[in-house]
């Protein structure tokens, strides 16, 4: 018998009571343990499957000991197997990749060329400045005209266009009896605009026919800014409201496809790529096929531009164009030329024009030269218009070419 205050409990009842309390405590402890271990976040089933697949594919990888031992072991960036599906022919690298950056909104294309004026006017040796100083002299004698000619030649305008321009300036200034520098400048402007030729259609033919996408093939020597141009062109087209797909047919340079994919991802444009060193034509084919099936407005295809032999280049670009045209007509062939390479650029232009029918020129790095005359020379050389110009290293530094804006920039 136990006495608790005024309560008296008999022995058997006390033992029963203690037994019940112990049982409740034991059951409670077991329940807490079970619930606790269930409550730990398990990786989702697909993560586990992925991990198992990973281990099957890379048995050499030791499972990394982590908290519960079930977290996925993901390869480090450098360990990613180059032969994974992203690099198989025709693999589409979409912008939904987990690492895809936030989408950028490309700047509108109108008025971009105005920036050229700012850049050229910083240059002390600009073509326009030199010409205006000469034309502003009191007496335009033979020596001065020769200097004008030399200035134009030094600015890469080319021999024939230079002679034409000088002839026309001489005649007009004589006939009109021009003494006023402002009038001389106006005449120079008119004649330069005429030489650049405003009558060309400079729109990039990016629209397809009969429900197929427009196909823009971008060619040129490596290092001229070809891949950059493809990326920037995608932004221009996106800014204009088009749906765009990129084809990384420059399989020669290891990083070119990555570079292109990054450009695309920034504006939500997918890239079709193939294995490094693979057949460029097969990537181009897959890109246009994917573009056609996916209902894209435009497919822009980057190509490799090794200047090995002309025959090799001809074979490669010829094949690329032929296989693309099994899917859809190529609507534009843009030749990329580095404006800073002068005569070299013209030589390249000649070679490419013999290999493929170029329909438009992109002059990159115009910001890096005071010799804007290359615009005139290269158009003359190929008989096709400059359609786009590169004005810097920025993402939206590719401008639609406009003759009047360009001449105004030269003369500012
Ligand atoms: N200043 C300036 N730099 C440019 C312009 N366009 C391209 N570049 C730079 O030129 C360099 C070469 O450009 P890429 O696009 O890699 O050249 P690529 O012709 O594709 O060369 P590969 O990929 O080797 O075939 C890069 O550093 C670009 O940023 C431009 O208009 N102005």
From TrEMBL:
<dbReference type="GO" id="GO:0003924">
    <property type="term" value="F:GTPase activity"/>
</dbReference>
<dbReference type="GO" id="GO:0005886">
    <property type="term" value="C:plasma membrane"/>
</dbReference>
<dbReference type="InterPro" id="IPR027417">
    <property type="entry name" value="P-loop_NTPase"/>
</dbReference>
<keyword id="KW-0547">Nucleotide-binding</keyword>
<dbReference type="GO" id="GO:0006614">
    <property type="term" value="P:SRP-dependent cotranslational protein targeting to membrane"/>
</dbReference>
<dbReference type="InterPro" id="IPR003593">
    <property type="entry name" value="AAA+_ATPase"/>
</dbReference>
<dbReference type="GO" id="GO:0005737">
    <property type="term" value="C:cytoplasm"/>
</dbReference>
<keyword id="KW-0472">Membrane</keyword>
<keyword id="KW-1003">Cell membrane</keyword>
<keyword id="KW-0342">GTP-binding</keyword>
<comment type="function">
    <text>Involved in targeting and insertion of nascent membrane proteins into the cytoplasmic membrane. Acts as a receptor for the complex formed by the signal recognition particle (SRP) and the ribosome-nascent chain (RNC).</text>
</comment>
<feature type="binding site">
    <location>
        <begin position="220"/>
        <end position="227"/>
    </location>
    <ligand>
        <name>GTP</name>
    </ligand>
</feature>
<comment type="subunit">
    <text>Part of the signal recognition particle protein translocation system, which is composed of SRP and FtsY.</text>
</comment>
<dbReference type="Pfam" id="PF00448">
    <property type="entry name" value="SRP54"/>
</dbReference>
<dbReference type="InterPro" id="IPR036225">
    <property type="entry name" value="SRP/SRP_N"/>
</dbReference>
<dbReference type="GO" id="GO:0005525">
    <property type="term" value="F:GTP binding"/>
</dbReference>
<feature type="compositionally biased region" description="Acidic residues">
    <location>
        <begin position="78"/>
        <end position="87"/>
    </location>
</feature>
<feature type="compositionally biased region" description="Low complexity">
    <location>
        <begin position="88"/>
        <end position="109"/>
    </location>
</feature>
<keyword id="KW-0963">Cytoplasm</keyword>
<feature type="region of interest" description="Disordered">
    <location>
        <begin position="56"/>
        <end position="109"/>
    </location>
</feature>
<feature type="binding site">
    <location>
        <begin position="364"/>
        <end position="367"/>
    </location>
    <ligand>
        <name>GTP</name>
    </ligand>
</feature>
<keyword id="KW-0378">Hydrolase</keyword>
<protein>
    <recommendedName>
        <fullName>Signal recognition particle receptor FtsY</fullName>
        <ecNumber>3.6.5.4</ecNumber>
    </recommendedName>
</protein>
<dbReference type="Pfam" id="PF02881">
    <property type="entry name" value="SRP54_N"/>
</dbReference>
<dbReference type="InterPro" id="IPR042101">
    <property type="entry name" value="SRP54_N_sf"/>
</dbReference>
<keyword id="KW-1133">Transmembrane helix</keyword>
<dbReference type="InterPro" id="IPR000897">
    <property type="entry name" value="SRP54_GTPase_dom"/>
</dbReference>
<dbReference type="GO" id="GO:0005047">
    <property type="term" value="F:signal recognition particle binding"/>
</dbReference>
<dbReference type="InterPro" id="IPR004390">
    <property type="entry name" value="SR_rcpt_FtsY"/>
</dbReference>
<comment type="similarity">
    <text>Belongs to the GTP-binding SRP family. FtsY subfamily.</text>
</comment>
<feature type="binding site">
    <location>
        <begin position="302"/>
        <end position="306"/>
    </location>
    <ligand>
        <name>GTP</name>
    </ligand>
</feature>
<keyword id="KW-0675">Receptor</keyword>
<feature type="transmembrane region" description="Helical">
    <location>
        <begin position="12"/>
        <end position="35"/>
    </location>
</feature>
<dbReference type="InterPro" id="IPR013822">
    <property type="entry name" value="Signal_recog_particl_SRP54_hlx"/>
</dbReference>
<feature type="domain" description="SRP54-type proteins GTP-binding">
    <location>
        <begin position="385"/>
        <end position="398"/>
    </location>
</feature>
<keyword id="KW-0812">Transmembrane</keyword>
